[in-house]
Design brief:
seven-stranded mixed sheet, five-stranded antiparallel sheet, globular, disordered C terminus
């Protein structure tokens, strides 16, 4: 999918307030004909944006879009992210891909956010649904002297930190599904994707991508093929995405900065608190093997522990499904 055009983005910003805007008004502000405005409105559906139309009133978004405020974000992250490290985009193919390219260009550590991803992806290359201006799509890049092996468990530490943050913000029932999913009520709320660059013996770079469903409602997510939820649906009201983005970036940056010295150890108790798999019968597809057993938490390296056929296995990757007989599958 190609990114939105400059005209489409300008139209979105005019409609972001949630009020009615006539075709005449929009045509004048955009320098287009009314027919061209109509064509642009039709094209917005490709970016996950539903525009309501009424002959007597014109066009409106419902609900309004709470767009990221770069100035407020920079102010909130003063002392945490240097001004030249922070980038906010209307649309990117992928925030992780942007930071990986930034590293390749020698521009170093960075944080980037986007209102929309045209090729957002999750673990194992799965597409990440990224409607414009509804959720958080952000990535944080950090340099490390050691090789990638020293970063085992980094995604679990970040997951535990985000679960703590959301709980502190009043979201009850947040949990973690190993290795990288945030869930609430058996529905997906967010995910973490770690991508590594560099030599096996170090130095290396880690790029942590965070996708968090924030103000997404039913009309925004009809194409998602798994149960999902959002902070809006859980809390019953929309969220200030800029303020939340600052808190998420701060938490992730703190974990990534401390990880070389602290590792996963400080996060093991927090992870156990939010672990949705512990004690559940699970099926795991790992390294070409199908393993059936009972999840027993994680070890000090972040491996999933599974009791299977009288032995305890430590698994460092794989696709985990909770058997439905235990309750709702996650």
């Amino acid at each position: 999918m190609s990114p939105p055009s400059a005209t489409s983005l300008a139209l979105l910003r005019l409609l972001a307030d949630g009020g009615w805007h006539s075709g005449v008004e929009l045509a004048q502000q955009l320098g287009l004909s009314r027919a061209a405005v109509w064509k642009q409105v039709q094209g917005l559906s490709r970016w996950g944006v539903a525009v309501h139309t009424q002959r007597a009133h014109g066009y409106r978004l419902s609900p309004a879009l709470d767009l990221l405020d770069s100035r407020r974000l920079r102010l909130a992250l003063t002392g945490i992210v240097a001004p030249d490290e922070l980038e906010v985009f209307d649309s990117l193919p992928s925030t992780n891909a942007h930071l990986i390219a930034r590293i390749g260009a020698g521009r170093g550590t960075g944080v980037c956010l986007a209102e929309h991803q045209s090729a957002g992806r999750g673990r194992r290359g799965r597409a990440w649904h990224s409607p414009f201006g509804r959720n958080l799509y952000l990535s944080v890049a950090q340099a490390y002297e050691a090789g990638p092996a020293a970063l085992a468990g980094l995604s679990l530490a970040i997951g535990a930190a985000l679960a703590q943050l959301l709980t502190a913000l009043g979201i009850a029932g947040v949990g973690l599904k190993w290795p990288n999913d945030l869930l609430c009520g058996g529905r997906k709320l967010g995910g973490i994707l770690i991508e590594l660059q560099g030599d096996t013996q170090g130095p290396c770079w880690a790029v942590a991508g965070i996708g968090l469903n924030v103000n997404m409602d039913v009309d925004d997510g009809p194409s998602i093929d798994q149960p999902w939820t959002s902070l809006l649906r859980l809390a019953g009201g929309s969220w200030d995405r800029t303020a939340l983005a600052a808190q998420v970036v701060s938490s992730v940056r703190q974990v990534m900065s401390a990880f070389p010295g602290d590792g996963l150890a400080p996060w093991l108790d927090a992870y156990a608190q939010f672990d949705l798999l512990a004690g559940c019968p699970v099926d795991v597809d790992w390294a070409g093997e199908h393993i059936c057993g009972v999840a027993r938490g994680i070890d000090a390296s972040g491996a999933l522990l599974v009791d299977c056929a009288g032995e305890r296995r430590a698994l460092w990757g794989g696709e985990v499904t909770v058997r439905a007989a235990h309750g709702s599958a996650v």
